[in-house]
Specification:
The structure is a single chain. This protein is mainly alpha-helical. 65% of the residues lie in helices and 6% in strands. The protein is built from four helices and two strands, in the order αβααβα. Strands 1-2 form a two-stranded antiparallel sheet. The radius of gyration is 28 Å and the shape is rod-shaped.
Length: 103
């Protein structure tokens, strides 16, 4: 192989590597965007925490859930005897109560 051919092969390989680098950079940027668009972790609150946040008793919470005036609780995966609320659901309910009170 002549020197000219070797140089041409190296330039071709360099161009291929640049294209691969650009493709990977684009793919990396897309993955970063997907991660940043993912909703953040929403903690599950036990009844005692919801009682503290709302100032309502456990029986009042059950009654409001039954009347559909408070977000429904659910059993966390693997839980036998406890229920919980998504923190965002409770905070949204509180925000709604504050909005109603300020009207």
């Amino acid at each position: 192989m002549s020197l000219a051919h070797a140089i041409a092969d190296l330039e071709s390989e360099r161009d291929s590597l640049k294209e691969e680098r650009d493709r990977l950079a684009t793919e990396n940027e897309e993955l970063r965007r997907q991660i940043s668009d993912r909703p953040s972790y929403d903690p599950i609150l036990p009844t005692a925490e919801v009682v503290k946040m709302t100032g309502r008793s456990p029986s009042s919470l059950r009654m409001m859930v039954k009347r559909q005036t408070f977000p429904a609780a659910f059993k966390p995966p693997g839980a036998d005897r406890c229920i919980g609320w998504r923190k965002s659901d409770v905070e949204n309910w509180l925000d709604g109560r504050i909005a109603i009170a300020s009207e």
